[in-house]
Amino acid sequence: MSKIEITRLHKRYENGTKEKTLLFSKNVSADRIFGGEEGFVLKDVNLKIEEGSFHVFLGASGCGKTTLLNIIAGLLPKTSGSVKMDGKEIEGISPERGLVFQNADNVLFPWLNVLQNVEYGLKRKGFKGEELKSKAAGAIELVGLAGHEKKYPNELSGGMRQRLQIARSLASDPEILIMDEPFGALDAQTRMLLQSELIRIWKSTGKTILFVTHDLNEAVLLGQKISILSAAPDASIAYNETVPFDYPRDPLDSDFVQYTAEIHKKLNEAIAVHADRIIDKSA
What we know:
By secondary structure, the protein is an alpha/beta fold. The chain has a domain at 2-96 and 209-277: P-loop containing nucleotide triphosphate hydrolases (Rossmann fold, 3-Layer(aba) Sandwich), CATH 3.40.50.300. The protein contains 8 helices and 10 strands. The protein has helices at residues 30-34, 65-73, 114-124, 129-142, 158-171, 188-205, 216-222, 254-272; strands spanning 2-11, 42-50, 54-58, 80-85, 88-89, 97-100, 176-180, 208-213, 225-229, 237-242. Strands 6-7-8-3-9-10 form a 6-stranded mixed beta sheet, sandwiched between helices. Strands 2-1-4-5 form a 4-stranded antiparallel beta sheet, with helices on one face. Helix 6 (188-205) links the parallel strand 7 and strand 8. Helix 3 (114-124) packs parallel to helix 5. It is globular.
């Protein structure tokens, strides 16, 4: 059954528009990147995402991956087309869709400790007393932060802060977890550890996960499905791939290496679709 169904989705940022929404995790306004471009950021995107799946989005910088996640999250309106969750059009944000950003420091409250950070969203949803404590404790244990409840964000490592951000999203029990390069700012060792932890969390919760990465190995290591986007402007989904490996996966395995090379080739082909029109406006 499709959890998310995207049909003929188009997105354009008009130059001078009032749509100043920050692309989440990027700290830059959308129209600074795309305003004034001819054509669309996303054009005729069609995709079905199955319930409980781990779906990875891969593409060149600036191809609209984050824009697509923002639309699914309800943070940005679409220009045209349809984006549905469980058969209903997505209009605005919803607790059914949890967000995990690249930089945890931008979203954690430094004056609240681990437990208080996780409890914050639950309190806003009306949870109290033992139910509040139970849900917060369960989320903290799930991400491996039990015993650190009284620590503040500045007392945690980068990996632990990212675990805390994930715990805060999971505590509200969303049906979908939307993650935009969540491990991109971490060192290699911490990144590998959290990749394994995320697979464990996904398997234990059955959540649908939407995950953006620029890392080919990470895409193949984590994803059941990989959608490869062409370059912007007028980006669309060039390839939809089903990863042929069970979990856990060994990135040193010869079949894994060969398949990753095949994905790399397709990524290069997708980028070449509009290679002569790629303009870096973020410099």
